[in-house]
Amino acid sequence: GAVVSQHPSWVICKSGTSVKIECRSLDFQATTMFWYRQFPKQSLMLMATSNEGSKATYEQGVEKDKFLINHASLTLSTLTVTSAHPEDSSFYICSARLGQEPYIEQFFGPGTRLTVL
Amino acid sequence: AQTVTQSQPEMSVQEAETVTLSCTYDTSESDYYLFWYKQPPSRQMILVIRQEAYKQQNATENRFSVNFQKAAKSFSLKISDSQLGDAAMYFCAYKRGNKLVFGAGTILRVKS
Question: How many CB atoms neighbour CB B14 within 10 A?
């Protein structure tokens, strides 16, 4: 099946610094990727839809200037958490969309655990 | 707005037995897609099964099957012959356009 990777898998940073998380589709091209946030024992909440070559579409309540998304190629999307604070600590998961309607599927990365001290 | 409800925060099943996880959803659309995802302790999301709303036949994948009741907007997952490796958090999801809307999840524990 299609493989999506994320890097890093785990990151600790100091409050006020910025952290970049990469999401790569390893064996397919993805014009659309998604970024989710997941708190412990809770569901995945969609943060934004990342579109190759255009601006990301953010969900209501997600700060665009805080969570910068760049989808510069068909295999890479990045999420940068700017001026991170402890409340940004969470598990961030990306997914990549593959296929044509109606046989579209999202393939998920393994996630990145962010801890802000 | 579409919502997905999983009313069972936790479920337990004895190894080799059968368990059913519940999911209901709300939508005004007539054609849509529903999914069950598994998230084991590794946190990697794995697609278990999908159902197209226009198909009356319930989807099955080996030991996993669904009971799709379109009129009742119900989409339950049945796991037969439960195995220790089935222990995970299970999410029901509704596909809305490009996006997936997830339920709150059900933690499944498998007892040996």
Answer: 11
pLDDT in tens, A49-67: 999 888 999 999 999 999 9
CB contact under 8 A, B98 and A43: no
Token pair 């990301």 is at which residue? A56
Which 3-state string (H, E, C) describes A88-100?
HCEEEEEEEEECC
Give contacts of B38 with chain A, Cβ < 8 Å. Answer: none
Q: Which residues of B touch A91 (CB under 8 A)?
A: 43
Mutation for testing the B interface, residue in A9, A10, A44 having most B CBs under 10 Å = A44
What pLDDT shows up at residue B1?
Answer: 60
Q: State residue A60's pLDDT score.
A: 95
